[in-house]
Amino acid sequence: MKFLKGCMILVATLMLIGGAGYLYASSGVKSKPGYAELVMPKGNSVNALVSVKLGPGGVGPARWIFEKIVENSDHKIDAEARVVKDVLADLNGVQLHVYEVGDNREAFDAAIAESVVALQAQNWQILAKVYEDDERVVVMHNGDNTQIDGVSVMVSTPENAVFINLIGPFDGQAIADAVSQLH
Predict the structure, then answer these.
(1) How far is the C-alpha of 116 from the C-alpha of 112, rounded, in Å?
(2) 147 backbone dihedrals φ, ψ, rounded to 5°
(3) Measured torsion, CA atoms of residues 38, 41, 42, 48, in degrees rounded to the nearest 10
(4) Helix/strand/coil for 102
(5) 104: Cα separation from own chain's centroid
(6) DSSP labels for 19-70?
(7) 119 neighbors 140 (Cβ within 8 angstroms)
(8) β-pairing verdict for 160-171 and 93-100
């Protein structure tokens, strides 16, 4: 009986520590100027494959892990890895939601449209809007040419939908320079 009680205390302690760690990792993200209040699709059959929110406390370890992987890799750092590294240097938070679309395409397209309207009401600007074939992509940002507070990308395809919000502030010129190296 003591063993069972000890196991229960251990499990409860681990759950408490894990919950506190998650709250710490996601805390502070909503208070940042680049945080986007994205509209998520509604419905009983909407399946989230991934749903992650990281604030400054969670981004730091992710940045450190990425830098260590890049440092310890055998190959030369390519342009894409440099862009990711430059963006991670200024990243203060991230929201990532990936959904399986199934028969709910209209719900996801409606969520994207509602998110665009809501973000525009908060002075976010559309950087790109692409509606081709079965793919819908909207990229928005908050800020100006010198500092970008946040970037949101919303994508809908027949298979998946992705909602991403990267929270800065980011140096607009540094990102432009990094992206120009990709071409």
Answers:
(1) 6
(2) -140, 125
(3) -110
(4) coil
(5) 22
(6) HHHHHHHHTTGGGSTT---PPPP-STT-EEEEEEEE-HHHHHHHHHHHHHHH
(7) yes
(8) antiparallel
Distance, in Å, from the CA atom of 114 to the CA atom of 116, rounded to the nearest integer, reads 5
Per-residue pLDDT of the chain (183 residues; tens, 9 = 90+): 555 554 455 554 544 444 444 444 455 667 777 888 888 887 666 778 888 888 887 777 777 777 777 777 766 666 666 667 777 778 888 888 999 998 888 889 999 999 999 999 999 999 889 988 899 999 999 988 788 899 899 999 999 999 999 898 888 777 677 656 655
Q: Give me the amino acid identity at 14.
A: L
Contact 96, 164 (CB under 8 A): yes
In terms of DSSP H, where are the helices of 78-151?
79-90, 105-121
- Are 142 and 148 spatial neighbours (Cβ–Cβ below 8 Å)? yes
In whole angstroms, give the CA distance from residue 45 to residue 163. Answer: 18
Nearest CA-CA partner of 37 in 133, 134, 107, 140: 140
Secondary structure (3-state) at 72: coil
| Domains of the chain, residue spans | 28-180
Residue 157 contacts residue 134 (beta carbons within 8 Å): yes
Report DSSP state, residue 75: S
Q: Within 13 Å and on the Cβ side, how many CA atoms surround 129?
A: 7
